[in-house]
Amino acid sequence: MADFLRRYVIALSFVNLCYAAVWKRLLDIRKPAEFTIKTLPARGEYLGAICGVLLCALAVVAFDALLRRAPRFMRACVLVAGFAFLVLRGQALLPGQVIPTSAFLFARAPSFALFGVVGVALVGAVLRYQEAISRGVTLLLLICAPFCAFTFANSLYAAASPATLKDGPLAERLLRRPGPRVLWIVFDEWDQRLTFDARSPNLAMPHVDSLRNESFFAENALPPAGMTMLSMPALIAGHRVRSEKLLGPGTLLITYDNGTTLPFGARPNIFSEVRDAGMNAAVAGWFLPYCRTLNSYLTDCWWQEADFRWNSYGTTFHDALLNQPRSLLETARFSPFGQSLPTLKHARTFDENFERSKRIASDNDVQFALFHYDIPHPPFFYDPKTGGMTSDSWITYTNGLALLDKAVGELRADMERSGAWNNTTIVLTTDHFYRGSQLVNGKRDQRIPFIVHFPGENTGLSYTRSFNTIVTHDLILALLRSEVRDTAGLQYWLDRHNSD
Question: 182 has which bridge partners?
């Protein structure tokens, strides 16, 4: 019995360290994470983690008992593999990731060969010094065993009274005023060059091409910043952002180029100005907590948190018990079970967001709305051949563009059926370019798509002057005031308000 308890404590310590990413989510939520998540850890997540560690430790003890009858070489291989797994999973406790897990598990040929050589060398060393190495690893795990008490005790304390995050109350719906209607649609990480100038020959985008040919199309638009956390606040406020500082779940301090520092959502912003003008505004988005920071100006709001590995396990005890151990075998993109948990959540976020935004798009009482979609931002999940999810881990940005085109077509068809298409100006753009474009063909282009479609117009206009889309804030207000009514008027307006 004493020997079993000793082995169980060692296994418990091993599993507990492998759960490092889970514990970091539950016990060490940092301020940057708090701002972009919708809910803090629930009671089921804490209890699921404790039970998961206890059960997985039993499985490790059982596996160790079988391994003792295996050949010496196999035991050496398992010891090396177990140590490598512990290093990969346990490094989540460090401030930064030392070894990219995806690169280790799914490396390209040169790196994979290097890891193979190192692995063979380690197996050889273990074969020669197996007893001494086994004693060293065992001692290390026994030293770390008290960490189990720390994680379990803190989890039970947090589970007793889990913290919550709440969105603010919605503004009262106003009577519809006569005047234009504007939809501002932001596809996250949408690249100009890979969509139009250097499109894959295997990619067809009929809906986007059709919209481009009957709209104002900017060939050289630039984003305010290269990341969502800076770009979207800049676009919403109408001022370029110098820096940002996260202070907690409800506060993102933004310092603008003029030196002013204000929390995200503070007046003035596009939504407060629309509200002050007596118009209803709505948001359906992701990543930023729109409903937590902007609800006082909105009559309808929905948002979904950013999807990370550590917040994709689920919130119930059942989901946590199953998905937390599964997450140990996945990266953000790759999974032996088909779609990884973050990819599944990313797909679910898009589906929910798209359905909510379609309803808002057909609500004529809403005169201004922002739709911020999580596509074609990775991870990619769409299979254009089947029109659904795919378990192929090697799908690319091109698949994300195909889904974007499908979404544009579906949204337009839905608005045409409701009659909203004929009285709505569409501003179609992105927050920033595709940051992984160099992985596609070795090039990066900071230009982004910018398309404006006016109701009733079917003749396109290409605008070649370079400008920064920070002007979107002022443009939307000009559209709602009927100061800009058509593509020719927009060209004239941009010439006067150009910001590059």
Answer: 368, 425
